Amino acid sequence: MIFGRKRIYVAYVGGTIGMKPTDNGYAPVPGHLTEQIHDRPEFHSAEVPKLHIREYEPLLDSANALPADWLRIARDIVEHRHHYDGFVVLHGTDTMAYTASALAFLLRGLAKPVVVTGSQIPLGVLRSDGRQNLLTAILVAAREEVHEVCLVFGSHILRGCRTVKASASGFEAFTSPNLPPLGMAGVEIAVDEKRLLGHPSGAVGLPMDLNAPVNLLRLYPGMPASLLEAAMAAPARGLILEAYGAGTLPAHDGGLLEALRRGTERGVVVGVVSQCVDGRVDLTAYATSAPLIEAGAVGGLDMTTEAAYAKLVVLLSEGHPSDEVRRLFASDLAGELTS
């Protein structure tokens, strides 16, 4: 147990928040973020927990992020879990929702707050949103009632595995379409404890690797069966299919249905999510969902595409049999879906 002033581990993975203006635009510069925090008195106030900052080498542009990077971050947090009260992950916004979702599944059982954040403008630039985002993230990471992965951006405190990026440039860039915010950062930082996950049981068990090949395909009118065939061909072990509405697809397209059947017979696990941002998959609602049920596809209920993809990668990498993966995919593991 840690006594006295709270201690927060800040992992700067990469992203705009720590970049420096150069002649060629914003660029990552090692040590720049640490200098910016060191030079700002608000980060050393008695009201702010003690910070330990680790800058990753090399710094990662989030557009280059891979599942292996999710595992690297998770291992870093697990390695330091007994020495800090909470964790802040600084990350680029482009794939932040994927990383926040993956960490929610990888860190099941951690029982400490992990807060993912970043910014649209670097911390050292006039009008940066990074100062407020980072301060809010640090203060949320120090709250004893939080035992889950959150994403903080602008005024919103969101469940990490419920988030999507909704704006390329706005300061309120992330939203949680199927779950209200866990809290808001205004004059006060207010967290609704009724919406938080309870204290988890069990221990964190990370997979050796996070390399299960999972593809992602968005259905569209006239899509050739060859695309689905390619998405389910070896070495693919999983597919997230963004279907229409509540989980429908062209029920009279024989080529598409045959490609789906062959892929699932080969053992590919198919998870179905909705193309609607505010949507929920119910494979029993329409007859045009019947081929998905017959093929053994699993409805993702109200999971985001980001959460569904990360979840399937994690489950397959953990080594579960296909039937168990299907069962777990449809189960609530980290607050990512509403049963």
Automatic annotation (TrEMBL):
A Pfam match: Asparaginase
Record CDD domains: L-asparaginase_I
Domain of life: Bacteria
Any one GO molecular function term: asparaginase activity
Residues that bind substrate: 62, 93-94
Record keywords, A-Z: Hydrolase
Entries under PROSITE patterns matching the protein: ASN_GLN_ASE_2, ASN_GLN_ASE_3
GO biological process per UniProt: aspartate family amino acid metabolic process
Family assignment from sequence similarity: Belongs to the asparaginase 1 family.
Protein name, per record: asparaginase
Natural source organism: Solirubrobacter pauli
Lineage start: Bacteria, Bacillati, Actinomycetota, Thermoleophilia, Solirubrobacterales
